[in-house]
Amino acid sequence: MTGLVFSNYSGVSGIMINPALMTGSKVFLDINVVGVSNFVENDMIFFPAGEKILSQVLTFDTIDLNNGDFKYNRNYSYFNNTNDKYIYTDVRIMGPSVMLQAGKHAFALSTAIRSVHAGNNIPYQVPIVMYEGIEDENYFGKNLYDKNYSFASMTWSEINLSYAVNYYERYGNRFTFGATLKGLFGHEGGYLAIKELDYMIIDKHTVQFNNANTEVGVALPVNYETNEFEIKPVIRGYGIGLDLGFVYTRKVSKINQSSEKRLCSKPYSDYVYMIGISLLDIGAISFNKNTEKHVFDNVGVYWEHYDTTHYEGISNIFQNYSNAFYGDPGASYASDRIRIALPTVLSFQFDYHLYKNFYLAALWNQPVKFQLNQLYQPSQFAIIPRYENRFIGVSLPVSIFNYRQPRIGMALRIYSFTIGTEKIGSWLGFNDFTGMDFYFSFKISLQKGICLTTRKGACYNNYSPFRR
Asked: Using the 8-state DSSP alphabet, how is residue 212 labeled?
């Protein structure tokens, strides 16, 4: 959401990329009413350019996972190359949130619902075998060895407390520290961690697993016996998260330590450039309700009639695999608790004031992965030119996602309403459709140095535009 977080009017939205950005905003009070972000990207399957139908893209049942019809209906295809694959979806609902700056200090209380589903370092043959089945003779008798890849999914709510302080201001230099403490409430989660998988497809009916060292955890809103949806309990786990950030700002002139005590009267001082670094989404959620963990620890099996195995529920899946590998349908069960880590990212930001209302920003997000049972956010590098004033803002981000996929986006802000996308080409049909990106936000903001009354009260100051 570069068009939202890279703005001098970002306010409470800036904490999503760096909590230390709060004190550099042109607004001293910022209230987020509602915001939504939807991001999907992958390099496993795609809609060929000019052939996609948006209704099909948004309809989940158009991809038939059982027989691979997507390849033959002229709407879908897959990347048939030897690159490791990834898939990433990120939905964020930004709830009621507020930020207030008082002098050197800024505070924020924010809420959000987030849902992230990610797979990374996926072997190239996985999407082919998944969608074609095990009937491709090119893989018969071929030994396949993979390790250290995973799929992870989690939906959770956040209540966040943020704080930032300008701890050093002198000779036009400003250093700011910020932090966000997150209370996390897990609604669903699951992961498949492949530590090592050595196998061979003998023919379309038989698979030989030479060695399987894997771990599976689920905490889902379903009945594991019948696969029926069960909303209760709404919260299946709890956790704590943390964001940390630093910002150095080079101001246009010597910083004016205003003596004004009223918040609306504090002036905004312009900058030449800002450099920020932040470590985001440190933490995890531990699930302990409707939760199962299964472990297959260096086991193998010669599995005949693998293609005829049928499953009636999630529990039945675990029982079948446990019985095949251990000879006991309950032997794989390891625990009624699982832990899923957040998608930790190391982020670098740069923003340069070119001329009057023109700016040029840069962003580099690099994932930091500690374990396989962790959500994974792919890398992103972006250059973001923008024009902005109090009433309108326009940005045109150019980015490279996961060091592979170039994208061009656009964002428009009209006063406190922002709408944007990081990948405008996917909506216009210019290239193969591998994902989509869309976000919007509506806020209420009060600008620094402008008060709305001439009365000598809480909102009176020398910068009032109504002062005679």
From this structure: E
Note the pLDDT tens digit of each residue in 2-25: 989 999 999 999 999 999 999 999
User: What is the enclosing helix (H) or strand (E) of 333?
Assistant: strand 333-335
Cα Rg of the chain (Å, integer) = 26
d(CA 375, CA 191): 9
3-state helix vs strand vs coil in the chain, percent to 5: 15, 55, 35
The average pLDDT across 60-76 equals: 46
- Digit-coded pLDDT (tens) for 292-314: 999 999 999 998 888 777 777 88
What is the distance between the alpha carbons of residues 301 and 401, in angstroms, rounded to a whole number? 39
Judge whether 96 lies within some domain.
yes
Burial bucket for residue 32 (CB in 10 Å: 0-12, 13-18, 19+)? buried
**Helix (H/G/I), strand (E/B), else coil: 92:** strand
Residue 187 in domain: yes
The C-alpha angle 416, 347, 281, rounded to 5 degrees, equals 85
Q: Classify residue 71: in a domain, yes or no.
A: no
* Total of domains in the chain: 1
CA distance 232 to 221: 7
Q: Which residues form the domain of 189? A: 2-44+79-447
Residue 310: which region, alpha, beta or left (left: phi > 0; alpha: psi -120 to 50)? Answer: beta
